[in-house]
Design a protein that fits this description.
Elements lengths: L4 H14 L12 H37 L5 H17 L10 H59 L1 H60 L6 H23 L6 E2 L6 H10 L3 E4 L2 E4 L7
Antiparallel strand pairs: 1-3, 2-3
Length: 292
Protein backbone atom coordinates (compact mmCIF):
# COMPACT_ATOMS: atom_id res chain seq x y z
CA UNK A 1 0.00 0.00 0.00
CA UNK A 2 1.55 3.32 -1.12
CA UNK A 3 1.55 6.23 1.35
CA UNK A 4 0.76 9.64 -0.02
CA UNK A 5 3.69 12.04 0.81
CA UNK A 6 1.21 14.90 1.10
CA UNK A 7 -0.76 13.02 3.74
CA UNK A 8 2.42 12.20 5.68
CA UNK A 9 3.49 15.85 5.68
CA UNK A 10 0.03 16.95 6.69
CA UNK A 11 0.13 14.52 9.64
CA UNK A 12 3.52 15.88 10.69
CA UNK A 13 2.17 19.45 10.65
CA UNK A 14 -0.85 18.37 12.72
CA UNK A 15 1.39 16.60 15.27
CA UNK A 16 3.63 19.65 15.42
CA UNK A 17 0.72 22.00 16.08
CA UNK A 18 -0.61 19.62 18.73
CA UNK A 19 2.76 19.52 20.53
CA UNK A 20 3.27 23.29 20.57
CA UNK A 21 1.64 23.41 24.00
CA UNK A 22 -0.18 26.32 25.65
CA UNK A 23 0.78 29.90 24.81
CA UNK A 24 3.48 31.41 26.96
CA UNK A 25 4.00 34.89 28.19
CA UNK A 26 5.11 37.12 25.31
CA UNK A 27 7.48 39.09 27.54
CA UNK A 28 9.47 35.96 28.41
CA UNK A 29 10.34 35.16 24.80
CA UNK A 30 13.74 36.03 23.45
CA UNK A 31 14.42 37.46 20.02
CA UNK A 32 15.67 34.06 18.83
CA UNK A 33 12.44 32.40 19.95
CA UNK A 34 10.37 35.08 18.20
CA UNK A 35 12.33 34.55 14.98
CA UNK A 36 12.02 30.78 15.27
CA UNK A 37 8.27 30.91 15.84
CA UNK A 38 7.76 33.41 13.02
CA UNK A 39 9.71 31.29 10.55
CA UNK A 40 7.92 28.14 11.73
CA UNK A 41 4.53 29.74 11.21
CA UNK A 42 5.62 30.89 7.77
CA UNK A 43 6.66 27.35 6.83
CA UNK A 44 3.38 26.01 8.14
CA UNK A 45 1.39 28.50 6.08
CA UNK A 46 3.39 27.63 2.94
CA UNK A 47 2.80 23.93 3.59
CA UNK A 48 -0.92 24.53 4.02
CA UNK A 49 -0.95 26.49 0.75
CA UNK A 50 0.84 23.65 -1.03
CA UNK A 51 -1.58 21.07 0.39
CA UNK A 52 -4.54 23.18 -0.77
CA UNK A 53 -3.07 23.50 -4.27
CA UNK A 54 -2.34 19.77 -4.31
CA UNK A 55 -5.94 18.96 -3.37
CA UNK A 56 -7.24 21.26 -6.12
CA UNK A 57 -4.93 19.64 -8.66
CA UNK A 58 -6.02 16.21 -7.50
CA UNK A 59 -9.69 17.11 -7.93
CA UNK A 60 -8.95 18.50 -11.41
CA UNK A 61 -7.14 15.32 -12.41
CA UNK A 62 -10.02 13.20 -11.16
CA UNK A 63 -12.49 15.30 -13.15
CA UNK A 64 -10.39 14.94 -16.29
CA UNK A 65 -10.13 11.21 -15.76
CA UNK A 66 -13.89 10.94 -15.29
CA UNK A 67 -14.42 12.92 -18.51
CA UNK A 68 -12.39 10.28 -20.37
CA UNK A 69 -14.40 7.37 -18.98
CA UNK A 70 -14.62 5.88 -22.48
CA UNK A 71 -10.99 4.72 -22.21
CA UNK A 72 -10.49 1.00 -22.05
CA UNK A 73 -8.31 -0.75 -19.49
CA UNK A 74 -5.19 -0.68 -21.66
CA UNK A 75 -5.55 3.05 -22.36
CA UNK A 76 -5.98 3.79 -18.63
CA UNK A 77 -2.78 1.87 -17.85
CA UNK A 78 -0.83 3.75 -20.50
CA UNK A 79 -2.13 7.09 -19.24
CA UNK A 80 -1.20 6.16 -15.70
CA UNK A 81 2.37 5.28 -16.71
CA UNK A 82 2.77 8.54 -18.65
CA UNK A 83 1.46 10.59 -15.73
CA UNK A 84 3.87 8.86 -13.34
CA UNK A 85 6.77 9.53 -15.70
CA UNK A 86 5.89 13.20 -16.01
CA UNK A 87 5.40 13.55 -12.26
CA UNK A 88 8.71 11.88 -11.37
CA UNK A 89 10.67 14.17 -13.72
CA UNK A 90 10.11 17.09 -11.33
CA UNK A 91 9.11 16.94 -7.72
CA UNK A 92 6.09 19.16 -6.99
CA UNK A 93 7.49 20.15 -3.61
CA UNK A 94 10.86 19.69 -1.90
CA UNK A 95 11.53 20.97 1.59
CA UNK A 96 14.63 23.09 2.24
CA UNK A 97 17.47 21.71 4.30
CA UNK A 98 16.73 24.18 7.06
CA UNK A 99 12.99 23.44 6.94
CA UNK A 100 11.72 24.30 10.41
CA UNK A 101 8.78 21.92 10.14
CA UNK A 102 11.10 18.94 9.71
CA UNK A 103 13.40 20.20 12.47
CA UNK A 104 10.50 20.79 14.86
CA UNK A 105 8.99 17.42 14.00
CA UNK A 106 12.31 15.69 14.64
CA UNK A 107 12.65 17.54 17.93
CA UNK A 108 9.14 16.49 18.98
CA UNK A 109 9.78 12.86 18.05
CA UNK A 110 13.12 12.95 19.86
CA UNK A 111 11.47 14.38 22.96
CA UNK A 112 8.86 11.66 22.84
CA UNK A 113 11.53 8.95 22.39
CA UNK A 114 13.52 10.34 25.34
CA UNK A 115 10.39 10.30 27.51
CA UNK A 116 9.62 6.69 26.56
CA UNK A 117 13.24 5.73 27.23
CA UNK A 118 13.06 7.30 30.69
CA UNK A 119 9.87 5.43 31.43
CA UNK A 120 11.48 2.18 30.31
CA UNK A 121 14.55 2.86 32.45
CA UNK A 122 12.32 3.54 35.47
CA UNK A 123 10.47 0.29 34.89
CA UNK A 124 13.76 -1.60 34.68
CA UNK A 125 14.91 0.02 37.93
CA UNK A 126 11.66 -1.01 39.64
CA UNK A 127 12.08 -4.57 38.33
CA UNK A 128 15.65 -4.63 39.64
CA UNK A 129 14.43 -3.56 43.07
CA UNK A 130 11.92 -6.42 43.09
CA UNK A 131 14.60 -8.88 41.99
CA UNK A 132 16.97 -7.68 44.70
CA UNK A 133 14.21 -8.03 47.30
CA UNK A 134 13.52 -11.58 46.11
CA UNK A 135 17.26 -12.38 46.25
CA UNK A 136 17.38 -11.17 49.85
CA UNK A 137 14.44 -13.41 50.75
CA UNK A 138 16.04 -16.39 49.02
CA UNK A 139 19.33 -15.76 50.81
CA UNK A 140 17.53 -15.60 54.17
CA UNK A 141 15.62 -18.78 53.37
CA UNK A 142 18.85 -20.56 52.43
CA UNK A 143 20.41 -19.45 55.70
CA UNK A 144 17.41 -20.85 57.60
CA UNK A 145 17.74 -24.18 55.80
CA UNK A 146 21.43 -24.35 56.67
CA UNK A 147 20.63 -23.66 60.32
CA UNK A 148 17.98 -26.39 60.34
CA UNK A 149 20.47 -28.78 58.73
CA UNK A 150 23.03 -28.07 61.43
CA UNK A 151 20.46 -28.61 64.18
CA UNK A 152 19.41 -31.94 62.66
CA UNK A 153 23.01 -33.11 62.45
CA UNK A 154 23.54 -32.19 66.11
CA UNK A 155 20.38 -34.04 67.12
CA UNK A 156 21.45 -37.12 65.18
CA UNK A 157 24.83 -37.13 66.86
CA UNK A 158 23.20 -36.69 70.29
CA UNK A 159 20.78 -39.66 69.80
CA UNK A 160 22.55 -42.42 67.82
CA UNK A 161 20.40 -45.22 69.27
CA UNK A 162 17.18 -43.53 68.16
CA UNK A 163 18.59 -43.14 64.66
CA UNK A 164 19.49 -46.85 64.58
CA UNK A 165 15.89 -47.71 65.50
CA UNK A 166 14.59 -45.43 62.75
CA UNK A 167 16.91 -47.06 60.20
CA UNK A 168 15.74 -50.49 61.32
CA UNK A 169 12.09 -49.49 60.89
CA UNK A 170 12.90 -48.12 57.47
CA UNK A 171 14.53 -51.41 56.44
CA UNK A 172 11.50 -53.30 57.73
CA UNK A 173 9.10 -51.09 55.82
CA UNK A 174 10.83 -51.69 52.48
CA UNK A 175 9.56 -55.30 52.05
CA UNK A 176 6.08 -54.10 53.04
CA UNK A 177 6.24 -51.44 50.32
CA UNK A 178 7.27 -54.05 47.78
CA UNK A 179 4.41 -56.30 48.89
CA UNK A 180 1.95 -53.44 48.58
CA UNK A 181 3.25 -52.64 45.11
CA UNK A 182 2.80 -56.28 44.06
CA UNK A 183 -0.75 -56.34 45.45
CA UNK A 184 -1.56 -53.07 43.73
CA UNK A 185 -0.26 -54.43 40.44
CA UNK A 186 -2.30 -57.60 40.94
CA UNK A 187 -5.45 -55.58 41.63
CA UNK A 188 -4.83 -53.45 38.57
CA UNK A 189 -4.38 -56.55 36.40
CA UNK A 190 -7.55 -58.10 37.83
CA UNK A 191 -9.47 -54.88 37.21
CA UNK A 192 -8.25 -54.72 33.62
CA UNK A 193 -9.23 -58.36 33.13
CA UNK A 194 -12.72 -57.74 34.58
CA UNK A 195 -13.16 -54.73 32.31
CA UNK A 196 -12.20 -56.84 29.31
CA UNK A 197 -14.70 -59.54 30.33
CA UNK A 198 -17.37 -56.91 30.88
CA UNK A 199 -16.72 -55.45 27.43
CA UNK A 200 -16.93 -58.91 25.79
CA UNK A 201 -20.19 -59.65 27.63
CA UNK A 202 -21.64 -56.31 26.58
CA UNK A 203 -20.74 -56.92 22.94
CA UNK A 204 -22.28 -60.41 23.14
CA UNK A 205 -25.51 -59.02 24.63
CA UNK A 206 -25.55 -56.33 21.94
CA UNK A 207 -25.31 -58.96 19.19
CA UNK A 208 -28.09 -61.02 20.78
CA UNK A 209 -30.41 -58.00 21.14
CA UNK A 210 -29.67 -56.88 17.58
CA UNK A 211 -30.51 -60.34 16.18
CA UNK A 212 -33.68 -60.49 18.32
CA UNK A 213 -35.02 -57.16 17.06
CA UNK A 214 -33.96 -57.93 13.48
CA UNK A 215 -35.85 -61.26 13.49
CA UNK A 216 -38.94 -59.78 15.13
CA UNK A 217 -38.90 -56.85 12.70
CA UNK A 218 -38.59 -59.27 9.78
CA UNK A 219 -41.70 -61.16 10.96
CA UNK A 220 -43.79 -57.97 11.16
CA UNK A 221 -45.66 -56.60 8.18
CA UNK A 222 -43.97 -53.20 8.44
CA UNK A 223 -40.19 -52.82 8.65
CA UNK A 224 -38.68 -50.20 10.97
CA UNK A 225 -36.44 -47.55 9.48
CA UNK A 226 -32.75 -47.50 10.42
CA UNK A 227 -33.00 -44.74 13.06
CA UNK A 228 -35.95 -46.41 14.83
CA UNK A 229 -34.13 -49.74 14.75
CA UNK A 230 -30.99 -48.21 16.34
CA UNK A 231 -33.08 -46.41 18.97
CA UNK A 232 -34.85 -49.65 19.93
CA UNK A 233 -31.54 -51.47 20.37
CA UNK A 234 -30.11 -48.62 22.44
CA UNK A 235 -33.14 -48.58 24.79
CA UNK A 236 -33.05 -52.36 25.17
CA UNK A 237 -29.35 -52.35 26.06
CA UNK A 238 -29.94 -49.49 28.50
CA UNK A 239 -32.67 -51.56 30.20
CA UNK A 240 -30.33 -54.56 30.57
CA UNK A 241 -27.58 -52.39 32.10
CA UNK A 242 -30.10 -50.84 34.52
CA UNK A 243 -31.41 -54.28 35.57
CA UNK A 244 -27.91 -55.59 36.26
CA UNK A 245 -26.93 -52.44 38.17
CA UNK A 246 -30.11 -52.51 40.30
CA UNK A 247 -29.54 -56.21 41.10
CA UNK A 248 -26.14 -55.36 42.60
CA UNK A 249 -27.57 -52.37 44.48
CA UNK A 250 -28.20 -52.92 48.22
CA UNK A 251 -31.41 -50.88 48.04
CA UNK A 252 -34.18 -50.86 45.42
CA UNK A 253 -33.89 -53.67 42.85
CA UNK A 254 -37.09 -52.99 40.90
CA UNK A 255 -36.93 -51.08 37.63
CA UNK A 256 -39.92 -49.25 36.13
CA UNK A 257 -40.54 -50.00 32.44
CA UNK A 258 -42.66 -47.63 30.30
CA UNK A 259 -45.69 -49.22 28.67
CA UNK A 260 -45.68 -49.52 24.90
CA UNK A 261 -41.96 -48.84 24.54
CA UNK A 262 -39.45 -50.72 22.39
CA UNK A 263 -38.22 -52.51 25.53
CA UNK A 264 -41.41 -54.61 25.72
CA UNK A 265 -40.16 -56.96 22.97
CA UNK A 266 -37.08 -57.77 25.02
CA UNK A 267 -39.10 -58.13 28.24
CA UNK A 268 -41.48 -60.66 26.65
CA UNK A 269 -38.55 -62.86 25.68
CA UNK A 270 -37.01 -62.53 29.16
CA UNK A 271 -40.37 -63.38 30.83
CA UNK A 272 -40.83 -66.45 28.65
CA UNK A 273 -37.37 -67.66 29.65
CA UNK A 274 -38.03 -66.95 33.35
CA UNK A 275 -35.20 -64.38 33.59
CA UNK A 276 -37.15 -61.57 35.30
CA UNK A 277 -39.76 -61.11 37.98
CA UNK A 278 -42.71 -58.82 37.15
CA UNK A 279 -44.54 -56.61 39.65
CA UNK A 280 -47.07 -54.36 37.94
CA UNK A 281 -45.09 -52.18 35.54
CA UNK A 282 -41.82 -52.95 37.38
CA UNK A 283 -39.36 -55.77 36.79
CA UNK A 284 -36.12 -57.06 38.24
CA UNK A 285 -33.68 -59.78 37.29
CA UNK A 286 -34.36 -63.11 38.91
CA UNK A 287 -31.70 -63.93 41.48
CA UNK A 288 -31.96 -67.52 42.57
CA UNK A 289 -29.98 -66.72 45.69
CA UNK A 290 -32.40 -63.93 46.62
CA UNK A 291 -35.18 -64.65 49.09
CA UNK A 292 -38.40 -63.53 47.40
Amino acid sequence: MEIDPQTVRKDKVRDLLRNLGPPVDQSSRTAAQETYIRRLRGDIERTKTFLRQAKEANVQLQDETAANSTWDHYTCQQAHLISLYEAYKKLPYMAMKNDLIGIATAASLTKKAVYEQRQTSKQIEDDNIEIERANVQQTQLLADYKEIDELLKQRIQAHPERMDKLRAKLRQSQPLDMELELKLESVQNATASMKAVEERMYQHVRRVVTKLYALQDWENASVMDEQTFKTSIMLALSLIVTLVTSLLSPQEKWVAVPTGGPEEKLLLVMIRNNLVVVRGNEVRLRDYGFDE
